[in-house]
Specification:
single chain; two-stranded antiparallel ribbon; 17 helices; 9% strand
Length: 413
Protein backbone atom coordinates (compact mmCIF):
# COMPACT_ATOMS: atom_id res chain seq x y z
CA UNK A 1 0.00 0.00 0.00
CA UNK A 2 2.82 2.41 0.79
CA UNK A 3 4.97 4.20 -1.73
CA UNK A 4 8.73 3.86 -1.40
CA UNK A 5 8.88 7.32 0.20
CA UNK A 6 7.29 5.79 3.30
CA UNK A 7 10.54 3.89 3.78
CA UNK A 8 12.73 6.97 3.94
CA UNK A 9 13.52 6.98 7.66
CA UNK A 10 15.82 10.01 7.98
CA UNK A 11 14.51 12.43 10.62
CA UNK A 12 11.56 10.26 11.59
CA UNK A 13 10.51 9.77 15.21
CA UNK A 14 10.50 6.28 16.70
CA UNK A 15 6.71 6.18 16.38
CA UNK A 16 6.87 7.08 12.68
CA UNK A 17 9.59 4.48 12.11
CA UNK A 18 7.26 1.95 13.71
CA UNK A 19 4.44 2.99 11.39
CA UNK A 20 6.74 2.52 8.40
CA UNK A 21 7.52 -0.97 9.69
CA UNK A 22 3.77 -1.60 9.92
CA UNK A 23 3.44 -0.59 6.26
CA UNK A 24 6.33 -2.87 5.38
CA UNK A 25 4.69 -5.82 7.11
CA UNK A 26 1.43 -5.12 5.30
CA UNK A 27 3.00 -4.54 1.89
CA UNK A 28 5.64 -7.25 1.84
CA UNK A 29 4.36 -10.03 4.04
CA UNK A 30 0.58 -9.85 4.35
CA UNK A 31 -0.75 -8.38 1.15
CA UNK A 32 -4.16 -10.01 1.57
CA UNK A 33 -4.68 -8.21 4.87
CA UNK A 34 -5.18 -4.64 5.86
CA UNK A 35 -2.22 -2.72 7.25
CA UNK A 36 -4.10 -2.31 10.49
CA UNK A 37 -3.93 -6.10 10.88
CA UNK A 38 -0.15 -5.87 10.53
CA UNK A 39 -0.18 -3.22 13.27
CA UNK A 40 -1.56 -5.80 15.67
CA UNK A 41 1.04 -8.45 14.90
CA UNK A 42 3.64 -9.44 17.47
CA UNK A 43 6.39 -8.47 15.03
CA UNK A 44 5.73 -4.76 15.31
CA UNK A 45 5.23 -4.88 19.08
CA UNK A 46 8.90 -5.62 19.76
CA UNK A 47 9.20 -2.21 21.39
CA UNK A 48 7.11 -3.52 24.30
CA UNK A 49 9.14 -6.71 24.92
CA UNK A 50 11.12 -6.24 28.15
CA UNK A 51 14.19 -8.26 27.13
CA UNK A 52 14.49 -6.26 23.90
CA UNK A 53 14.19 -2.98 25.78
CA UNK A 54 16.85 -4.17 28.25
CA UNK A 55 19.31 -5.13 25.49
CA UNK A 56 18.76 -1.83 23.61
CA UNK A 57 19.38 0.10 26.82
CA UNK A 58 22.54 -1.85 27.62
CA UNK A 59 24.05 -1.73 24.12
CA UNK A 60 22.95 1.67 22.82
CA UNK A 61 21.44 3.52 25.79
CA UNK A 62 17.99 3.74 24.21
CA UNK A 63 14.70 2.44 25.60
CA UNK A 64 12.90 1.93 22.31
CA UNK A 65 14.19 -0.34 19.54
CA UNK A 66 12.53 1.93 16.96
CA UNK A 67 15.04 4.62 17.90
CA UNK A 68 17.61 2.39 16.17
CA UNK A 69 17.48 2.58 12.36
CA UNK A 70 20.79 0.91 11.55
CA UNK A 71 20.49 -2.74 10.48
CA UNK A 72 23.96 -3.53 11.84
CA UNK A 73 22.98 -2.42 15.34
CA UNK A 74 19.81 -4.51 15.19
CA UNK A 75 22.02 -7.47 14.28
CA UNK A 76 23.84 -6.81 17.57
CA UNK A 77 20.50 -6.99 19.38
CA UNK A 78 19.77 -10.28 17.60
CA UNK A 79 23.21 -11.63 18.59
CA UNK A 80 22.53 -10.72 22.22
CA UNK A 81 19.28 -12.71 22.08
CA UNK A 82 21.19 -15.64 20.56
CA UNK A 83 23.61 -15.56 23.51
CA UNK A 84 20.68 -15.73 25.94
CA UNK A 85 19.21 -18.64 23.99
CA UNK A 86 22.52 -20.52 24.10
CA UNK A 87 22.74 -20.24 27.86
CA UNK A 88 19.83 -22.66 28.05
CA UNK A 89 17.14 -22.52 30.67
CA UNK A 90 13.43 -23.19 30.81
CA UNK A 91 12.12 -24.63 27.55
CA UNK A 92 9.27 -22.13 27.42
CA UNK A 93 11.59 -19.20 27.98
CA UNK A 94 13.97 -20.39 25.26
CA UNK A 95 11.09 -20.75 22.83
CA UNK A 96 9.92 -17.22 23.62
CA UNK A 97 13.44 -15.86 23.12
CA UNK A 98 13.65 -17.56 19.72
CA UNK A 99 10.32 -16.02 18.71
CA UNK A 100 11.54 -12.63 19.88
CA UNK A 101 14.72 -13.01 17.86
CA UNK A 102 12.67 -13.75 14.73
CA UNK A 103 10.67 -10.54 15.35
CA UNK A 104 13.88 -8.54 15.74
CA UNK A 105 15.34 -10.10 12.60
CA UNK A 106 12.25 -9.06 10.65
CA UNK A 107 12.83 -5.49 11.79
CA UNK A 108 16.45 -5.82 10.67
CA UNK A 109 15.21 -7.00 7.24
CA UNK A 110 12.98 -3.94 7.11
CA UNK A 111 15.91 -1.61 7.84
CA UNK A 112 18.01 -3.35 5.21
CA UNK A 113 15.20 -2.88 2.69
CA UNK A 114 15.01 0.82 3.52
CA UNK A 115 18.77 1.25 3.21
CA UNK A 116 18.85 -0.46 -0.18
CA UNK A 117 16.31 1.88 -1.73
CA UNK A 118 18.14 4.35 -3.93
CA UNK A 119 17.71 8.06 -3.40
CA UNK A 120 16.44 8.28 -6.96
CA UNK A 121 13.66 5.82 -6.18
CA UNK A 122 12.76 7.63 -2.98
CA UNK A 123 12.69 11.13 -4.38
CA UNK A 124 11.65 10.67 -8.03
CA UNK A 125 8.06 11.68 -7.31
CA UNK A 126 6.69 13.62 -4.34
CA UNK A 127 4.49 11.73 -1.88
CA UNK A 128 0.75 12.16 -2.12
CA UNK A 129 -1.49 12.69 0.90
CA UNK A 130 -5.20 13.46 0.57
CA UNK A 131 -5.07 15.71 3.63
CA UNK A 132 -2.55 18.03 1.93
CA UNK A 133 -4.07 17.99 -1.56
CA UNK A 134 -5.29 21.49 -2.56
CA UNK A 135 -7.40 19.94 -5.34
CA UNK A 136 -8.99 17.19 -3.26
CA UNK A 137 -12.55 15.86 -3.76
CA UNK A 138 -15.24 17.21 -1.46
CA UNK A 139 -15.63 13.85 0.29
CA UNK A 140 -14.82 13.72 4.03
CA UNK A 141 -11.26 12.62 4.80
CA UNK A 142 -12.46 9.83 7.10
CA UNK A 143 -14.67 8.33 4.38
CA UNK A 144 -11.91 8.73 1.80
CA UNK A 145 -9.44 6.81 3.97
CA UNK A 146 -12.07 4.16 4.65
CA UNK A 147 -12.46 3.56 0.90
CA UNK A 148 -8.68 3.38 0.42
CA UNK A 149 -8.38 0.78 3.19
CA UNK A 150 -11.29 -1.16 1.67
CA UNK A 151 -9.54 -1.22 -1.71
CA UNK A 152 -6.32 -2.39 -0.07
CA UNK A 153 -8.16 -5.25 1.61
CA UNK A 154 -10.59 -6.30 -1.14
CA UNK A 155 -8.37 -5.28 -4.10
CA UNK A 156 -11.48 -4.53 -6.20
CA UNK A 157 -14.04 -1.81 -5.50
CA UNK A 158 -16.81 -0.05 -7.40
CA UNK A 159 -17.66 3.59 -6.77
CA UNK A 160 -21.38 3.95 -7.44
CA UNK A 161 -23.44 7.10 -7.46
CA UNK A 162 -25.54 9.61 -9.35
CA UNK A 163 -24.13 11.56 -12.29
CA UNK A 164 -21.97 14.48 -11.30
CA UNK A 165 -20.69 13.24 -7.94
CA UNK A 166 -17.10 13.01 -9.22
CA UNK A 167 -16.60 9.24 -9.23
CA UNK A 168 -13.81 9.20 -11.82
CA UNK A 169 -12.05 12.16 -10.22
CA UNK A 170 -12.29 10.45 -6.84
CA UNK A 171 -10.98 7.17 -8.29
CA UNK A 172 -7.79 8.90 -9.45
CA UNK A 173 -7.22 10.41 -6.00
CA UNK A 174 -7.79 7.02 -4.37
CA UNK A 175 -5.20 5.57 -6.72
CA UNK A 176 -2.69 8.27 -5.76
CA UNK A 177 -3.30 7.62 -2.07
CA UNK A 178 -2.92 3.87 -2.48
CA UNK A 179 0.29 4.24 -4.47
CA UNK A 180 1.47 7.00 -2.17
CA UNK A 181 2.49 9.37 -4.96
CA UNK A 182 1.17 10.84 -8.21
CA UNK A 183 2.70 8.11 -10.31
CA UNK A 184 0.47 8.23 -13.38
CA UNK A 185 2.46 5.57 -15.20
CA UNK A 186 1.16 3.07 -12.62
CA UNK A 187 -2.45 3.99 -13.35
CA UNK A 188 -4.51 2.99 -16.39
CA UNK A 189 -8.00 4.33 -17.10
CA UNK A 190 -10.44 2.91 -19.64
CA UNK A 191 -14.17 3.16 -20.25
CA UNK A 192 -16.45 0.21 -20.91
CA UNK A 193 -19.18 0.39 -23.56
CA UNK A 194 -21.53 -2.06 -25.24
CA UNK A 195 -19.01 -2.94 -27.95
CA UNK A 196 -16.15 -3.58 -25.54
CA UNK A 197 -15.05 -7.23 -25.51
CA UNK A 198 -12.82 -9.85 -23.93
CA UNK A 199 -10.55 -9.49 -26.96
CA UNK A 200 -10.05 -5.79 -26.19
CA UNK A 201 -9.59 -6.32 -22.47
CA UNK A 202 -7.63 -9.57 -22.12
CA UNK A 203 -6.59 -11.24 -25.34
CA UNK A 204 -7.88 -11.92 -28.84
CA UNK A 205 -7.08 -12.62 -32.46
CA UNK A 206 -6.45 -9.50 -34.53
CA UNK A 207 -5.40 -8.86 -38.14
CA UNK A 208 -1.86 -7.68 -38.85
CA UNK A 209 -0.61 -5.24 -41.49
CA UNK A 210 0.43 -8.21 -43.63
CA UNK A 211 -3.08 -9.65 -43.74
CA UNK A 212 -2.41 -12.42 -41.21
CA UNK A 213 -4.24 -13.02 -37.95
CA UNK A 214 -2.33 -13.26 -34.69
CA UNK A 215 -3.05 -13.39 -30.98
CA UNK A 216 -2.76 -9.93 -29.50
CA UNK A 217 -2.84 -9.12 -25.81
CA UNK A 218 -5.40 -6.65 -24.47
CA UNK A 219 -4.91 -3.62 -22.27
CA UNK A 220 -5.50 -5.35 -18.93
CA UNK A 221 -3.22 -8.28 -19.84
CA UNK A 222 -0.37 -5.89 -20.65
CA UNK A 223 -1.07 -3.87 -17.52
CA UNK A 224 -0.75 -7.00 -15.36
CA UNK A 225 2.43 -8.11 -17.09
CA UNK A 226 3.97 -4.71 -16.41
CA UNK A 227 2.94 -4.96 -12.75
CA UNK A 228 4.62 -8.37 -12.48
CA UNK A 229 7.90 -6.80 -13.62
CA UNK A 230 7.69 -4.24 -10.78
CA UNK A 231 6.47 -6.22 -7.76
CA UNK A 232 7.57 -3.51 -5.31
CA UNK A 233 5.19 -0.97 -6.87
CA UNK A 234 1.41 -0.59 -6.64
CA UNK A 235 -0.70 -0.46 -9.82
CA UNK A 236 -4.29 0.74 -10.13
CA UNK A 237 -6.63 -0.02 -13.04
CA UNK A 238 -9.66 2.29 -13.30
CA UNK A 239 -12.73 1.25 -15.30
CA UNK A 240 -15.14 4.09 -15.96
CA UNK A 241 -18.80 3.21 -16.70
CA UNK A 242 -18.06 -0.38 -15.68
CA UNK A 243 -21.72 -1.41 -15.86
CA UNK A 244 -22.07 -0.35 -19.51
CA UNK A 245 -20.20 -3.40 -20.77
CA UNK A 246 -21.20 -7.06 -20.88
CA UNK A 247 -19.21 -7.89 -17.77
CA UNK A 248 -19.28 -11.68 -17.99
CA UNK A 249 -18.18 -11.49 -21.61
CA UNK A 250 -15.42 -8.95 -20.97
CA UNK A 251 -13.92 -10.50 -17.83
CA UNK A 252 -14.07 -14.16 -18.83
CA UNK A 253 -11.59 -16.13 -16.70
CA UNK A 254 -10.85 -12.99 -14.70
CA UNK A 255 -14.06 -13.61 -12.81
CA UNK A 256 -11.92 -15.92 -10.66
CA UNK A 257 -8.46 -14.43 -11.13
CA UNK A 258 -9.34 -10.97 -9.76
CA UNK A 259 -10.37 -12.34 -6.36
CA UNK A 260 -8.09 -11.06 -3.62
CA UNK A 261 -7.03 -14.55 -2.53
CA UNK A 262 -6.36 -15.81 -6.08
CA UNK A 263 -3.62 -13.31 -6.91
CA UNK A 264 -0.68 -15.68 -7.38
CA UNK A 265 0.89 -18.04 -9.96
CA UNK A 266 -0.74 -20.90 -8.08
CA UNK A 267 -4.08 -19.96 -9.65
CA UNK A 268 -2.76 -19.13 -13.12
CA UNK A 269 -5.00 -20.25 -16.00
CA UNK A 270 -4.63 -20.95 -19.68
CA UNK A 271 -6.46 -18.16 -21.48
CA UNK A 272 -9.03 -18.74 -24.22
CA UNK A 273 -6.78 -17.57 -27.05
CA UNK A 274 -3.47 -18.75 -25.60
CA UNK A 275 -1.18 -20.67 -27.90
CA UNK A 276 0.18 -24.09 -27.01
CA UNK A 277 3.42 -22.86 -25.44
CA UNK A 278 2.03 -19.66 -23.91
CA UNK A 279 2.49 -19.21 -20.16
CA UNK A 280 -0.54 -19.34 -17.92
CA UNK A 281 -1.96 -16.00 -16.83
CA UNK A 282 -2.70 -14.64 -13.36
CA UNK A 283 -3.45 -11.24 -11.87
CA UNK A 284 -0.57 -10.16 -9.57
CA UNK A 285 -1.25 -9.07 -6.00
CA UNK A 286 0.02 -5.52 -6.62
CA UNK A 287 -2.84 -4.76 -9.07
CA UNK A 288 -5.95 -3.02 -7.73
CA UNK A 289 -9.15 -2.39 -9.68
CA UNK A 290 -11.52 0.57 -9.27
CA UNK A 291 -14.78 0.57 -11.20
CA UNK A 292 -17.07 3.62 -11.55
CA UNK A 293 -20.79 3.01 -11.94
CA UNK A 294 -23.55 5.48 -12.80
CA UNK A 295 -26.69 4.61 -10.84
CA UNK A 296 -28.95 6.88 -12.91
CA UNK A 297 -28.99 5.03 -16.24
CA UNK A 298 -32.15 2.92 -16.35
CA UNK A 299 -31.09 1.23 -19.60
CA UNK A 300 -28.26 -0.67 -17.93
CA UNK A 301 -28.93 -4.09 -16.41
CA UNK A 302 -27.89 -4.87 -12.86
CA UNK A 303 -24.32 -5.92 -12.28
CA UNK A 304 -23.59 -9.62 -12.74
CA UNK A 305 -23.97 -11.30 -9.34
CA UNK A 306 -20.79 -13.34 -9.77
CA UNK A 307 -18.85 -10.14 -10.40
CA UNK A 308 -20.64 -8.31 -7.60
CA UNK A 309 -19.21 -10.80 -5.11
CA UNK A 310 -15.68 -9.95 -6.21
CA UNK A 311 -16.10 -6.21 -5.63
CA UNK A 312 -16.90 -4.03 -2.64
CA UNK A 313 -19.42 -1.30 -3.47
CA UNK A 314 -18.94 2.23 -2.16
CA UNK A 315 -21.65 4.86 -2.40
CA UNK A 316 -20.45 8.26 -3.59
CA UNK A 317 -22.95 10.96 -2.71
CA UNK A 318 -23.40 14.63 -3.62
CA UNK A 319 -21.29 16.80 -1.33
CA UNK A 320 -22.61 20.29 -0.58
CA UNK A 321 -20.91 20.80 2.78
CA UNK A 322 -18.39 23.38 3.97
CA UNK A 323 -15.56 22.18 1.71
CA UNK A 324 -17.77 22.60 -1.34
CA UNK A 325 -19.00 26.01 -0.15
CA UNK A 326 -15.45 27.18 0.44
CA UNK A 327 -14.54 26.14 -3.10
CA UNK A 328 -17.42 28.10 -4.64
CA UNK A 329 -16.62 30.96 -2.30
CA UNK A 330 -13.33 31.58 -4.08
CA UNK A 331 -15.36 33.01 -6.99
CA UNK A 332 -18.97 33.50 -5.84
CA UNK A 333 -20.40 35.55 -2.98
CA UNK A 334 -21.12 33.76 0.29
CA UNK A 335 -24.83 34.59 0.28
CA UNK A 336 -25.21 33.32 -3.28
CA UNK A 337 -23.33 30.10 -2.47
CA UNK A 338 -25.60 29.44 0.51
CA UNK A 339 -28.67 30.01 -1.70
CA UNK A 340 -27.39 27.61 -4.39
CA UNK A 341 -26.71 24.87 -1.83
CA UNK A 342 -30.09 25.42 -0.20
CA UNK A 343 -31.93 25.04 -3.53
CA UNK A 344 -30.00 21.96 -4.66
CA UNK A 345 -30.31 20.27 -1.27
CA UNK A 346 -34.06 20.85 -1.32
CA UNK A 347 -34.36 19.33 -4.79
CA UNK A 348 -32.20 16.37 -3.79
CA UNK A 349 -34.35 15.77 -0.70
CA UNK A 350 -37.40 15.45 -2.96
CA UNK A 351 -35.57 13.20 -5.45
CA UNK A 352 -34.20 10.99 -2.69
CA UNK A 353 -37.59 10.44 -1.00
CA UNK A 354 -39.60 10.06 -4.22
CA UNK A 355 -40.88 6.52 -4.80
CA UNK A 356 -40.29 6.90 -8.55
CA UNK A 357 -36.76 8.33 -8.29
CA UNK A 358 -34.42 7.69 -5.32
CA UNK A 359 -30.95 8.66 -4.10
CA UNK A 360 -29.23 7.27 -7.21
CA UNK A 361 -30.71 10.12 -9.25
CA UNK A 362 -29.72 13.10 -7.10
CA UNK A 363 -27.97 16.13 -8.58
CA UNK A 364 -24.21 15.90 -8.07
CA UNK A 365 -21.85 18.70 -7.10
CA UNK A 366 -19.72 18.45 -10.27
CA UNK A 367 -22.27 20.50 -12.19
CA UNK A 368 -21.06 23.56 -10.27
CA UNK A 369 -17.29 23.14 -10.31
CA UNK A 370 -16.50 25.03 -13.53
CA UNK A 371 -15.86 28.53 -12.20
CA UNK A 372 -13.14 29.81 -14.53
CA UNK A 373 -15.52 31.70 -16.83
CA UNK A 374 -17.87 33.23 -14.23
CA UNK A 375 -18.43 36.95 -14.83
CA UNK A 376 -21.94 37.26 -13.43
CA UNK A 377 -22.98 34.69 -10.81
CA UNK A 378 -26.69 35.02 -11.61
CA UNK A 379 -26.10 34.39 -15.31
CA UNK A 380 -23.79 31.49 -14.42
CA UNK A 381 -26.57 29.90 -12.36
CA UNK A 382 -29.25 30.47 -15.02
CA UNK A 383 -27.02 28.87 -17.66
CA UNK A 384 -26.38 25.75 -15.55
CA UNK A 385 -30.11 25.40 -14.83
CA UNK A 386 -31.22 25.91 -18.43
CA UNK A 387 -28.67 23.76 -20.22
CA UNK A 388 -27.71 21.12 -17.65
CA UNK A 389 -30.05 20.74 -14.68
CA UNK A 390 -33.44 21.21 -16.37
CA UNK A 391 -32.68 18.71 -19.18
CA UNK A 392 -31.51 16.19 -16.56
CA UNK A 393 -34.64 16.66 -14.47
CA UNK A 394 -36.86 16.25 -17.53
CA UNK A 395 -35.07 13.01 -18.29
CA UNK A 396 -35.44 11.45 -14.83
CA UNK A 397 -39.03 12.72 -14.47
CA UNK A 398 -40.07 11.71 -17.99
CA UNK A 399 -43.34 10.19 -16.71
CA UNK A 400 -44.11 12.86 -14.09
CA UNK A 401 -44.32 16.32 -15.62
CA UNK A 402 -45.78 17.82 -12.46
CA UNK A 403 -42.81 16.73 -10.34
CA UNK A 404 -40.39 18.00 -12.98
CA UNK A 405 -42.02 21.42 -12.96
CA UNK A 406 -41.85 21.56 -9.16
CA UNK A 407 -38.13 20.74 -9.11
CA UNK A 408 -37.31 23.24 -11.89
CA UNK A 409 -39.30 25.91 -10.09
CA UNK A 410 -37.33 25.38 -6.87
CA UNK A 411 -34.03 25.86 -8.72
CA UNK A 412 -35.13 28.90 -10.72
CA UNK A 413 -37.07 30.65 -7.94
Amino acid sequence: MATQSVYKLDGKSSENVKQSFVHYMGDKNATSKQIKDAANSRYVKIDSISVVRSICKKLFDVDNIYEITDAGRISNVSDALTSLINTGGDEGEVKELKNTRSYVNKYRDFLTYCANLSEEALDSTPPYDFADDPDKPFIAEEKFNEIVELLFRKKNIILQGAPGVGKTFLAKKIAYQLIGTKKDENIETIQFHQSYSYEDFIQGIRPTTTGEFKVRNGIFYNFCENAKEHPEDTFVFIIDEINRGNLSKIFGELMMLIEYDKRSPRYALKLTYSEENSPRFYVPENVYIIGCMNTADRSIAIVDYALRRRFAFCDVEPEFGETFKNYLGTTLSKGFVDEVCKKVNRVNDIIRTSSSLGKGLEIGHSYFCQLSSVDDEQEWWKSICKYELFPYLREICFDNEELCSELCHILSD
